[in-house]
Amino acid sequence: MVGRMDVKFRYRGREVTEPDLEFIRELIAAHPGASRRELSARLCTAWNWVQPNGAPRDMVCRGLMLELHRAGHIQLPPVRWVNPNPFLVRRRPLPPLLDTTPLVAPLAQIQPLEFELVRRTGGESFFNGLLEHYHYLGYTQPVGEHLKYLAHSRGRPIACLAWSSAPRHLGSRDRFIGWSAQARRQNIRLLAYNTRFLILPWVKVPHLASHLLGRVARRLPLDWQRIYGHAVYLLETFVDPERFRGTCYRAANWILVGQTTGRGKAAPSKRPNRPIKQVWVLPLVQDFRQRLAEVR
Fold first, then answer.
1. Cβ atoms 199, 208 nearer than 8 A
2. Is the dihedral of CA 218, 219, 225, 230 positive or negative?
3. What is the pTM of this model?
4. If you ran DSSP here, which 8-state letter would residue 5 be given?
5. How many whole angstroms separate alpha carbon 122 and alpha carbon 49?
6. Which of 15, 26, 133, 192 has its CA 20 to 30 A from that of 252?
């Protein structure tokens, strides 16, 4: 077991020892003509550093090597080409063309409802456009693991639900789970965060929101396991109390566990710099605390 004195660097849950640093230095020296991308790919292969679905953790490995370089532990080759930031040049999703005739009916009359997983399909741009033009927060491209569901009633789109990797630090949620810092770093991937929930403004169906939340909570763990190779044991979301009361989440058996600090991860001080929001969670298994607290 690696002792605390042996660890020279920590990054995204990975502990790097002096022998690890020496191995990376030798790897760089053995491939003098290699680019930074090639070196990170070689390090992933040498360490067998892969995601739960078997794909190399190349981006994380590249980030680790860059941090080691900045800290003076290793010397990477010069940058050969700067890739433009896709988030800065990304075009705003176009307004989607769709039927906006008011849909006012009891829930039973709009059945059957169908969920379409549009991630990496031809329907993803349509989904993005709906969020951009009809959700008050607009559309933001998610980073990391994420899924997008488009709900239909008899072929007509009525709602969007977007999910992504959970925030790494969230005090009220972490206290509710009761996990250690080490368990949180290791198991944060076992949570999914509901980043957007939109029922199109011309759809007026009582109890639809809680029904959709219940349906997607049953399907999402299966899709996440199939696509990303690991389970999800807890769902979470934020609700702005200045705009909403969280009624649909409560009706779908979600639990209000606290609120955010309003600071965000990039806050320069401890003063709130954004709206304080309620934190709601939904356990998907009875022993979620035990599973999330487990450290391997």
1. yes
2. negative
3. 0.73
4. G
5. 32
6. 133
Using CA atoms, how far apart are residues 112 and 107, in angstroms rounded to an integer? 10
Q: What is the largest distance, in Å, between two alpha-carbon atoms of the chain?
A: 69
Question: What's the pLDDT tens digit per position in 77-99?
Answer: 988 766 555 544 557 787 788 99
Provide DSSP, 58-109: HHHHHHHHHHHHHTTSS-PPPP------HHHHPPPPPPPP-----EE--GGG
**Block residue for tokens 């849950």:** 13
SS3 content of the chain, % helix, strand, coil (to 5): 35, 20, 40
Nearest to 211 by CA among 67, 110, 141, 128: 110
β-strand partners of 198: 160
Q: What is the CA radius of gyration of the chain?
A: 22
pLDDT tens, position by position, 222-253: 999 999 999 999 999 999 999 999 999 999 99
Q: Quick check: helix, strand or coil at residue 247?
A: helix
**55 vs 226, which has greater pLDDT?**
226
CATH-assigned architecture of domain 91-293: 3-Layer(aba) Sandwich (3.40)
Tokens of 133: 């033009």
DSSP lists the bridge partners of residue 256 as 280
Alpha-carbon span 200 to 5, nearest angstrom = 56
CA distance 166 to 35: 32
Domain positions in the chain are 4-70, 91-293
Of residues 247, 241, 232, the one with CA closest to residue 199 = 247
**Three-state SS at 10:** strand
| Assigned token pair, 51 | 């995601």
